[in-house]
Amino acid sequence: MNFSSKLLENAVAEFSKLPGVGQKTALRLVLHLLNQNKQEVEQFSGAITKLRNEIQFCATCHNISDTAICEICSSPKRDAGVICVVEDTRDVMAIENTSQFNGLYHVLGGLISPMDGVGPTDLQVDSLVERLKDGEVKEVIFALSATMEGDTTIFYLNKKLKPFNITISTIARGIAFGGELEYVDEITLGRSIVTRVPYENSLTK
Amino acid sequence: MNFSSKLLENAVAEFSKLPGVGQKTALRLVLHLLNQNKQEVEQFSGAITKLRNEIQFCATCHNISDTAICEICSSPKRDAGVICVVEDTRDVMAIENTSQFNGLYHVLGGLISPMDGVGPTDLQVDSLVERLKDGEVKEVIFALSATMEGDTTIFYLNKKLKPFNITISTIARGIAFGGELEYVDEITLGRSIVTRVPYENSLTK
């Protein structure tokens, strides 16, 4: 593209680095910011710099936090006997939004993926094992994506956690609520028949 | 959404203000930036602040510029006898990308739109009239969107520029190159028959 300004070109180049943002979208966003007053633009760029410079990761669960120990880990209202293992912060938010879970989390920071060169040592595995040592934790729930990487990670962690004599579970897989049978893929549908549950248990409460 | 960090929430809120960016996209972009090193994030926010604080608008054509008079207006290679009137910077870029125009531009900064409360006084109309006074300009080309607002603006400007005894033209409307007849809307197709051109003129050079 033919920019009339080097400053504009730089800003567009920076925005284009963001995932899913092409050059045309970047230009639209930059021109939008250019129409805002200086204070608003300062606020925008300030929020990002501040976030990057001041953000911490909870020493216990490794979730994003403003403090050394995150709100969830330090809350006396949460059940410290259950740990839900997730891939990243977004998953914590998603589960928190359901209001169905009152335990603690453990953010792995990724999934085992040999193709991408991510092995167990790149993830927060040792600290998870460490958290189980005092015997307070009774159950670990794996809430990982239903992908090859997710399954590999569960397989690996399951072996690691076996010695602790705790309940190990994974979130239920099956047909989504509101899903129509004819559009469900065969693997999900097939497994949902094999892993059928008693009718009483299937009711939402 | 349930953010585990106030800093994160602020950054997501700022990104959500951008056009076409919802909260989920904003979160994805912010988490992406969080994964970059501090220097890269500084560079990102720096480029935007610098753009907003240092950008200028060309005193002649009102296009975005790094200097008081933009590159195009100050270039001796451009034909100062032709002015192409456009809505905004993006249109200048689009036309420059075609490499088919060698004249100067005039950026109106919008289109007349009574619905949005934009009248002629909100646009760079007076300075366009001013540019015609020394008699150097022989032709004004309107390259505005083929919308009600574009047509209204052309109608208004045409009356304003009549007294100057210059050629006033608009960019050609018709069927796009590669367009299939059956998918073209009736108005465009109908007008393209009425405003047909001699075959020799229609060939791309």
Protein described:
2 copies of one chain form a homodimer. The first copy, chain A, has 205 residues and is an alpha/beta fold. Chain A folds into 3 domains: 6-54, RecR Domain 1 (Helicase, Ruva Protein, domain 3); 78-171, Dna Topoisomerase Vi A Subunit, Chain: A, domain 2, CATH 3.40.1360; 177-205, no CATH class. Helix content of chain A is 43%, strand content 12%. Chain A has 9 helices and 6 strands. Chain A has helices at 6-16, 23-35, 38-54, 71-74, 89-98, 126-132, 148-161, 186-194, 199-202, and strands at 56-57, 64-65, 79-86, 103-107, 139-142, 167-170. A 4-stranded parallel sheet of chain A has the order 4-3-5-6. Chain A has a two-stranded antiparallel sheet with strand order 1-2. In chain A, helix 1 (6-16) packs across helix 2 (23-35). The radius of gyration of chain A is 22 Å and the shape is globular. The N and C termini of chain A lie far apart (56 Å). At the A-B interface, helix 1, helix 2, helix 3, strand 2 and helix 5 of A face helix 1, helix 2, helix 3, strand 2 and helix 5 of B.
List the helices and strands and how they pair.
Two copies of one chain form a homodimer.
Chain A: H1 6-16, H2 23-35, H3 38-54, E1 56-57, E2 64-65, H4 71-74, E3 79-86, H5 89-98, E4 103-107, H6 126-132, E5 139-142, H7 148-161, E6 167-170, H8 186-194, H9 199-202
Parallel strand pairs in A: 3-4, 3-5, 5-6
Antiparallel strand pairs in A: 1-2
The CATH class of the largest domain in chain A is Alpha Beta
Largest contact between chains: A-B, 57 and 57 residues
Strand order of the largest sheet of chain A: 4-3-5-6
| Succession of helices and strands of chain A | HHHEEHEHEHEHEHH
Specify the structural class of chain A. alpha/beta
CATH topology of the largest domain in chain A: Dna Topoisomerase Vi A Subunit, Chain: A, domain 2
**Overall domain count of chain A:** 3
- Helicity of chain A, as a percent range: 40-55%
DSSP summary: helix tally of chain A? 9
Instruction: Write the CATH architecture name of the largest domain in chain A.
Output: 3-Layer(aba) Sandwich
Q: Compute the gyration radius of chain A: what is it?
A: 22 Å
User: What is the overall shape of chain A?
Assistant: globular
Q: pLDDT under 50 segments of chain A (min length 5)? A: none
Oligomer: homodimer
Distance between the termini of chain A: 56 Å
